[in-house]
Backbone:
């Protein structure tokens, strides 16, 4: 009997240790949950504070014509401007507003974007190694009409093998300068699949360009997918004046699919 009792002597201490362990674990989890919740509340409170300051600043820029020198005297702006969270919120607000305004309001937003240094934030994103961050910088710069970065964005579109980044960069080039953006497509070595071509065509269509130049250069590109894209652009914009160029490429190219596309396009214009 004594032997059996000795064999079970370990059970009670084990249960005590197990209970203490689970109690401590539960308290730790509860503490972490409280910490995360408090941190989330603090972030939300800070975001609300920042948004109020940003709305006031942007209202003055858009409708009162207040320039950066005067905005820089704003207490909230000087207090928060060096905080990345504030600048990110400011960036998002400016980009969203710029999409919905044109004319003088758009020019005012662009001026503030430059003078406040937000342009440098976007350039740093464009140079980042992560393609998602790079995409973000490219979109911001093109949306804010920063034409001097055209060549940098064009190089990204030519070098990257990431399809999303490539399309984003190509569309940004077209948005910044439609004709140069189209012309630079002739330098692309990698094949454009149908999805990429459709995205590029959509970007061109959205710009409502009256006169497209350089489309004939696409037809003599060594990249056959660029030639195919050129034919699609010609059809979309009804550029019948390029019939001689279509005829030449249809006769000389060794791709049967592009020959067929060219023949169908000529028949389309002749009917």
Residues:
């Amino acid at each position: 009997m004594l032997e059996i009792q000795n064999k079970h002597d370990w059970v009670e201490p084990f249960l005590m240790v197990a209970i203490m362990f689970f109690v401590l674990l539960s308290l730790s989890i509860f503490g972490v949950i409280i910490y995360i919740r408090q941190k989330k509340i603090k972030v939300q409170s800070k975001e609300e504070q920042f948004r109020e300051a940003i709305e006031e600043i942007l209202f003055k820029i858009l409708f009162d014509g207040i320039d950066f020198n005067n905005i820089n005297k704003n207490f909230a702006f000087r207090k928060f401007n060096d905080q990345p969270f504030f600048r990110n919120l400011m960036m998002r607000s400016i980009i969203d507003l710029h999409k919905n305004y044109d004319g003088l309001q758009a020019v005012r937003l662009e001026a503030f974007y430059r003078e406040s240094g937000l342009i440098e934030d976007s350039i740093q994103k464009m140079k980042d190694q992560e393609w998602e961050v790079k995409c973000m910088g490219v979109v911001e710069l093109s949306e804010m009409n920063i034409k001097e970065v055209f060549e940098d964005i064009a190089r990204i579109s030519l070098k990257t093998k990431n399809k999303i980044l490539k399309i984003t960069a190509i569309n940004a080039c077209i948005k910044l300068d439609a004709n140069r953006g189209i012309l630079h497509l002739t330098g692309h070595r990698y094949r454009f699949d149908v999805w990429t071509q459709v995205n590029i065509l959509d970007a061109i269509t959205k710009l409502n360009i009256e006169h497209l130049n350089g489309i004939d250069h696409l037809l003599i590109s060594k990249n056959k997918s660029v030639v195919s894209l050129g034919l699609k652009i010609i059809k979309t914009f009804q550029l019948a004046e390029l019939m001689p160029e279509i005829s030449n490429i249809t006769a000389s190219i060794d791709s049967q699919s592009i020959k067929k596309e060219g023949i169908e396009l000529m028949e389309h214009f002749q009917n």
